[in-house]
Amino acid sequence: MSAAGVPLAWYLVLGAILFALGAAGFLFRRNIITMFMAIELMLNAVNLTFVALAYYLGQVDGLVLAFFVMVVAAAEAAVGLAIILTVFRNRASLGIDEVQSLRN
Amino acid sequence: MQQLWLIPLFPLLGFLLNGLLGRRLSKAAVNAVAIGAVLASFLWTLKVLGALWPLEAPHLERYFTWIQADQARIGYDLALDRLSAVMLLVVTGVGLLIHIYSVGYMAQEGGYYRFFAYLNLFMFFMLTLVLAANFLLLFVGWEGVGLCSYLLIGFWFLKASASNAANKAFIVNRVGDFGFSLAIYLIFVNFGSLDFARVFAAVSRQPVESGFGTLTAIGLLLLMGATGKSAQIPLYVWLPDAMEGPTPVSALIHAATMVTAGVYMTARCSAIYLHAPGALEAVAVVGLLTASSAATIGITQFDIKKVFAYSTISQLGYMFLGAGVGAFGAAIFHLWTHAFFKALLFLGAGSVIHALGEQDLRRMGGLRAKAPLTFWTLLCAALSISGVPFTAGFFSKDQILLAAHQHAPWMYWLGTLTAAMTAFYVFRAIFLAFFGAPRGWRHAHESPPVMTLPLAALALLSLAGGYFDVSGFLAPLFPAAAGHHDPRLVFVATGAGLAGIALAWLFYVARPGLAERAAARLGGLYRLVYNKYFVDELYEAVLLRPVVEGSRRLLWRKVDVGLIDGAVNGVGARACGVGGVLRLIQSGNIRSYAAWVLLGSLVTLLAALAGGSR
Is the minimum CB–CB distance between B586 and chain A shorter than 8 Å? Predict the structure, then answer.
C-alpha cells in the first residue's frame, strides 16, 4: 500500500539506519551531550518504525506506543539533562569516561 | 475457705516489693518488708491451724484450673493436712528466725535488698511446695526452691568458687529433677490425674507389688528426685559446696527446709512406697549408706561449715532410713527436730564466723569466754543432735533406730554406729572452736542481740521440740508400724551418742595431739575419708571429663566449627567467589554497559530469528 507512494520498507530501512546511527553514536562518542542526543535519535527511529507500521496495518496500537515513547523521552530528557548538569558542575567535564565512581 | 493461698502470697509480695524497689529503700524498710512478710505467713499459718484444729481430715481448697486437657484437670489447689501442717510450721517458724538473724549477719554486705528478696522468694516456693495438692504444683515449688538455692549459693557471684558451687548445685539437682519429672509422667499415664488424693486412692486399690512393676518404677524415680534435692547418695555432692553461700542461707535452705523437701515428698508418697516394697527398701539403703558415709567424712573436715554440711547429709540419710523402714512419722519427726538443731548449728557457726572472720577449726579455739551465748546455744544443738536423753534429737532419732531394728537389725547397728560418729564430729567441732587456747586469732566479739535472740529461741526448741510428738500427731496419715521394742535398744543408741561425746572430749580436750597421732596411724584410710572418698574426683573423671572433652573435641571443634560453621562460611565464600567474577563486568564505564546491552539484544534478536525460521 502506498498512499503517498512511499513503500513501507523505506520507512523501516530509514528507521533501522537511524537506530544504527544512534547506537553507534552512543557507543563511540565520549561527550555526554552527544551520547544523549544519540539516545534521542534511537528513540525517534523506533517512533518512526511504530508510526509507519501503524499506518500500514491500519491499527492504532503503534500510534499509542509512539505517544508513550514521546512521554518517556520527555521525562528522560528532563532527568538526563539534570544529571548532566550536575555532573558538569562537579567535575567541570563532560567526558563520559571520567564518570566511573560506581565501578566494581 | 481458710484462704490458704495467703500463706505463700505474703512472701511473694515481699519478694516483689524488695526485688523491684529494694534498691531505693532503706535497710530498715527492707527488713520490715522481708521479715513482715514471713511473720504474716507464720501468723496466718497459726490462724488457719487454729481454725481447723485438730485437722483430722485433709483440708482442700481449689482456686482455679491451671491446665485443662481432655478429661485431665490440673488445678491451682492447695491442701492442708497434718503432714503439711508440720512442714508449714517448720518453714515459716524457722524461716522467720533465720530472717531475723540475717539482719545482723548481712548488715555489712552489699546487695542487702537482693538477699532478702531471694529469701522471700524462697519462702514463697517452699510454701507452694508444701501446700501443693497435686504433683505438678509440688514440682513448681520444687523447681522454684532449686532456683532460689542457686541464686543464694551464688550470692557472692563475683567469687568464682561461689558461682561454680551454684552451678554445681543447680546441675546436680537437674539430674534428680529429671527422675522426678519422669515419675510424674508415669503417674499421669497410669492414673490419669496428678491430684494427690485421686492418685493415692487409686494406688491403695492396687495390690502390693512383689516384683518390679509400675509402682516400683515410680517409687525409684521419685527417689532419684529426692536424692537430688535432699543430697543423698549418689547426688549429694552439691551440698558441701553449697556452703559458699552466706551462712543464714546454709541454715535455712541447705539444712532446715529445702533439703528436707525430698523427705517430705517421700512421706507424701507413702501410699506409693507402701505398695512398692522394693522401692521402699532402696530408700532405706540409700538413706543408711548416706548417713554413715557422710558421718565419716564429717569427722575429718576442718571447715566448720563443711562439718555441719556433711552432718546435714548424714541426718537427711537418717530421715530416709526412717521413711525406708516404713516409719514415715518418725522421719518427719526427725525432720522437725533436725530443722531446729541444724539451723541452730549453722547459725551458731555463722555467729562464730562473724566473730572471727574465720571458718577453719584449726585456727579457732578458746572462744567460750568471748562468745558465751553462742557457745551455750551451740552446745544445746550439739546435745540434741547427739541424742542426749530428753533433748529433741533423742526422741526422733530413737524412733527411727527402733523402727530400723524392727525392719532389719543390721540397719539399727549401722545407724547406732553413725549416731556415735555424729556425736563425735559435732563435739569435735565444739571443742575445737570453744575450748583450749586461742590458735591464731586476736579479736573476737559476741554477735549483736538480733543474732543471738534467734539462737536462743532455736536452742529452746532444740531442747524442747521433742515434746511435741510429731509421729503421734501424724499417726492417722501413716499406718503405724506397731511393735514392741526392747528398751535395751534405746540404752545402746543413747550410750553410743554419749560415747561419741566422751571420745571427742578425750581426743580434743583431755589429750590434744591424740587426734593427729590417730590420723597418722590410720594413714591411707584417713586420707581417703579426708578427701571425701574421692567421689568428686571420681565424678570428674567418669562423668565430667568425658562430657567436657567430648563437647570440646567432638561437638565444638568438629561439629560446630567444622560442620555448622563450615557449611555457613562455605556458602558465604562461594557467594563471594561468584560475586568476585561477576564484579569485573561492572566497570563503571557506561559504554561497556551499552555494548553489553547491544550484544544482549543482538543475541536475543538472532535467537528470535532462529526460532522464527524453524
Answer: yes
Determine contact, residues B285/B408, Cβ cutoff 8 Å.
no
A64 in a domain, yes or no?
yes
> Do B598 and A23 lie within an 8 Å CB cutoff?
yes
Q: Does residue A66 lie in a domain region?
A: yes
Q: pTM for the complete prediction?
A: 0.80
Which structural domain range is residue A77 located in?
31-93
Report which of B359, B336, B357 is spatially closest to residue B474, judged by C-alpha positions. Answer: B336
CB contact under 8 A, A102 and B588: yes
B585 vs A: CB within 8 A: no
Asked whether residue A85 is domain-assigned, the answer is yes
Show the CA angle centred on residue B80, arms to residues B74 and B83, nearest 5°: 115
ipTM: 0.79
Q: What percent of chain B stands above pLDDT 90?
A: 64
Q: Is the pLDDT of residue B232 over 90?
A: yes
A66 to chain B nearest CA, in Å?
A: 21
Distance of alpha carbon B244 from alpha carbon B239, whole angstroms: 10
> Does a structural domain hold residue A20?
no
Q: Does B605 touch chain A (CB under 8 A)?
A: no
The predicted-structure confidence for B559-607, as pLDDT tens digits, reads as follows 888 899 999 999 999 999 998 888 887 777 778 888 889 999 999 999 9
CATH number for A83? 1.10.287.3510
Nearest CA in chain A to B587: A103
Q: How far apart are CA A24 and CA A18, in angstroms?
A: 10
Our count of domains for chain A comes to 1
How many whole angstroms separate alpha carbon B173 and alpha carbon B196?
A: 23
Cross-chain residue pair A103–B589, CB shorter than 8 Å = yes
